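Sharing in case it's useful to others searching the archive later.

Someone asked me privately for the predicted structure of Transporter, so I'm posting the question and my answer publicly. Question first, with the sequence:
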Amino acid sequence: MSRLEWLTNLFPLWVLITAIVALLHPPLFLWVSSDYIVWILMVVMLGMGLTLSWADFKAVGLMPRSVALGFLAQYLIMPTAGWLVARLYQLPPPFAVGLILVACCPGGTASNVVSFIARAHVALSVVMTLCSTLAAVVLTPLLTKLLAGQYVEVNAMQLFWGTVQVVLLPILVGLALNTKAPNLVKKVLPISPFISVLGICIICGGVFAASASAILTHGVQLLAAVISLHSIGFFGGYYIARWVGYSQRTCRTISIEVGMQNSGLGVALARQAFANPLTAVPCAISGVTHSLIGSLLAGIWRWQQSTAIAPKP
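And my answer, the predicted C-alpha cells:
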C-alpha cells in the first residue's frame, strides 16, 4: 500500500479533525460558500465517474438479486429511519429536514473503501453505489418531499436539478473520459481518491464553521439522532441480508452500503435548495459519524475473519 493510499484510508480521522478545527476556529473555513461546495462535490463525483466503465453496468446483471436487495434496503430503511428518528428526537425543523434529506441520499463512495477494509464484496459495493446514485436523481427529491414536507416546503424540482448537476453530469463526464481517454484516466486515478477525501473535508469544514454556534448548542441531540440513523442503516442492512440467506461477505457489504450515505451530496443539496443554513448541519455530522461507525465495523469484521482463518497453535 502506498503512502497516499494509507492517507486516503484514514479519511474518518481527517474528517473528524476538520470538524473539530472548524468548530474551534470557524474563520478557517468560512470562505467555503454554497457555490464552492457544489463545485467541490462535482469534482468528487467526477472522481467516481472516472472509475466506471460500461462493464460495471453489465455487472448488475451478474448479481441482480443482491443488488436489488441492497437497493431496496437503501431506499426503504434509511428514509424511513430518518423520518422516525427526527420525530423521536423532536428535532427543530431545519435539523429534521437535514436528517431526512441525508437519509434519502444514495450510498456514499466511501462505502467502497470500507468494504475493502472489511474484506466484503467490493465489486458488489461499487455496483450498489452506482445504482443508488443514478436512482438518486429521481428518488432523493421525491422521498425528501414526501417525508420532510411536513416541516418546510420542499421544492422537489429544485432538488431534482441540483442532483442532476452534482451527480449525474459529473458521472457521465467521468464515464466518457474513461472510455475516450483511458491513458489520461490512468494517470489521474491514483490521486483521485485522496482528492475526494480532501474535498469532503473542506465541505464538512465549511458547514461546521458556518453553523458552529448551533452545533455546539444542539450537538448532543444532533449527534444522538445521527448515530441512531446510521446504526439502524448498518444493522438493518446486515440482518435483512442475513434473513434472506446471503453469505457473511454479502451481508457485510449490504450493511456498509445501506449505513453509509453520500453526506456530501446532502450538504450540497441542502445549501442549494433550502434557505436555512442549519439544514446542512445533520448532513455534515453524518459524514463524520457514518465514516467512524463504518470503519469500526470494518475493523471488527476484518479481525474476526483473520481470527477465523488463522491456524491453531
